[in-house]
Amino acid sequence: xxxxxxxxxxxxxxxxxxxGLPLLEHPDCDSAGLALLVDGGLAAAKKTGTxxxxxxxxxxxxxxxxxxGIGHLRRATHGSPTDLNAHPHLDGSGRVAVxxxxxxxxxxxxxxxxxxxxxxxxxxxxxxxxxxxxAGHYSSCGDPAEAMRQVCRQLTGSFALVAVHADEPxxxxxxxxxxxxxxxxxxxxxxxxSDPAAFAxxxxxxxxxxxxxxVTVRPEGAWVTDLDGVPVDPRxxxxxxxxxxxxxxxxxxxxxx
Length: 257
Ligand code: GLU
Prior knowledge:
Structural class: alpha+beta
CATH architecture: 4-Layer Sandwich
Helix content: 10-25%
Shape: globular
CATH superfamily: Aminohydrolase, N-terminal nucleophile (Ntn) domain
Number of domains: 1
Oligomer: single chain
Strand order of the largest sheet: 3-2-4-1-10-9-11-15
CATH topology: Glutamine Phosphoribosylpyrophosphate, subunit 1, domain 1
Bound molecules: glutamic acid
C-alpha cells in the first residue's frame, strides 16, 4: 500500500492532491492517479511510475479546474503495474471513480459475477470490481454512503476504498476494514487520507474513520456511520505537519487512534 488522499473544499483539488500525495510516496509505489469532479462529470489521469510521471502526464493533458477529487499511489497486489491497472478505476458508465488501498480477498468471484451480468472489466485489479459494484448500488439507492455501505458488506479482505460519483458534486465517500482512513477537518474544507501526513499542512484536526465504517465527506464536514447506517462520532486527535502514522509517531499529539 502506498496511499490515498481526497479533498472536498474551496481550493483547487488538483493542487491539494498533488501536494498531499508526495507526503505519502514510498519507493514501492508503482503508479499514481487521480479523479476530479468536473461540471457534472469526472476527469481522471493515471500513470505508471512515480508522481513525476503523473505530473508529466498532467502537463501533456491538463485536467479542468475542480474543487473535489481523489488521488492514489499504488503498490500493485492484483494485476501488474500498468497504466490500465493504476487507480482510479471507473465503472462501465464512467460516472463512478474509485481508489483503493489493500486487497479485496474475493475479487475473483466478484469479477466473475460482474462479468456474468454483462459488466466489462478492463483491468486486472480487485478495485475495478468495487467501482462496478458501487455504481450498481448507487443506481438502486441513489445514496453514495448507502451504496458504499452495501459494497463494504459485500467485500472480504482488508481495504480502504474512496470514491466520487459524477451525480454527487462536492461529495467523497470512503469505507474501510483493516486499513486506515483518516479524516481531516478544516475551515470549509475536508480531507480524507490513508495517513494524516497528507493533509497535516492544511489542518491539524484528524479523526480515524474506523473499521467497518463509512464516511461521507463534504466541504462543510464529514459524517461517519457503521455498516448499518448508525451514526458514529469518531474521536478527534491532533496532527502536526511532518507527522506520519507508523513513522514520526512521536509527532502525533493527543493520539487516540
Ligand atoms: N489491490 C489494489 C491493486 O492491486 C490496491 C493496491 C494498493 O494498496 O496500492 O490495485
